[in-house]
Amino acid sequence: MKIHNFGAGPCILPQEVFKNASKGVLNLGNTGLSVLEISHRSNTFQSIFDQTKKLVLELMELSDVTHEVLFLQGGASSQFALVPMNFLKQKALYIDTGVWSEKAIAEARNFGQVEVLKNSSLEGYLKLPDLSIIRSGNYDYVHYTSNNTIYGTQFEDVLKTDCPLICDMSSDIFSKQIDFNLFDLIYAGAQKNIGPAGMTLVVIRKTFLDELVESRIIPTMFNYQKHIEKSGLLNTPPVFSIYVAMLNLTWLKEQGGLLHFDSYNKKKSFLVYKELERNTLFTPKIHIGSRSNMNITFDLVNQDLSSDFLEFSLSRGIHGIKGHRSLGGFRASLYNALSLDSVQCLVENLNVFERKYVD
Description:
Blueprint: E1 4-5, H1 15-26, H2 43-60, E2 67-72, H3 75-87, E3 91-95, H4 99-108, E4 113-117, E5 142-145, E6 147-148, E7 153-154, E8 165-168, E9 185-189, E10 200-205, H5 224-229, H6 239-254, H7 257-278, E11 282-284, E12 295-300, H8 306-315, E13 318-319, E14 330-333, H9 340-358
Parallel strand pairs: 1-13, 3-4, 3-5, 5-8, 8-9
Antiparallel strand pairs: 2-10, 6-7, 9-10, 11-12, 12-14
């Protein structure tokens, strides 16, 4: 029986990537060495490192003349602190849309004044604020999270502001076509659409680096400029995660890049939301206009059937749909590598479960 993995992360990657990665673990490019044992100072790894950076910039339609690419560690959660540590001089604006932005706000307050705008907590974080009406102020930067994996919300458009713009794109990066040039700093944990857990992507506009805080003592490993001065090799990088990211980004490019996945992911999510709206046993959690194409959250109308539904789904190869512990219910994550076939199986699963209890 085929397993359909709807887990929120670490998540599904293409089978082609798994196969090529396994070859690299045994014998990387006929070197006789595993990718797990090569030196990060070797020409072999330098080639992997350079190619991964090139793919990131190419897919984002950015240039190495204008932007720096770093592969750091500590997950996106480490960036909650590193961003304000490096760039918060006096005051920053944070958009609060739930758990991840709340964590980022808490870290930022250790380094300066934080203004929280458009807090949607009164909606239970199930409806996003309208960011088109935001009026820019005298901020060092504006920060927001583009997609929230827990609640299943996603901003369709890029926030408009004349202040430096920073975005946590951990769960929807490379899933749709957007103008990445509108951002001054982007960060994302790898374990969604980039590659395996263990590496965090950071992309910084070079001119934004002029805004680095100079008066604050920043530990070397937490200083973006120090990493850049060492060409991203300040310490031993997450070699294997970078290697698999290269394989995955190559696959993404070969499939047609972000333009292809923009359309493909919308098609997948449309099928699921359509069934949830039709099905008499289920209801989507998120308001129309705030719904994510990456993480679809939903409930049973009769929550006493929850255990039965999970067991029924597992018996049909549907894995990873239990909702986050803080929200409950169910969640289907439709990352790039999840096939349309798997989505159709989920829709059929919802349909058959309804017939089982309604007929």
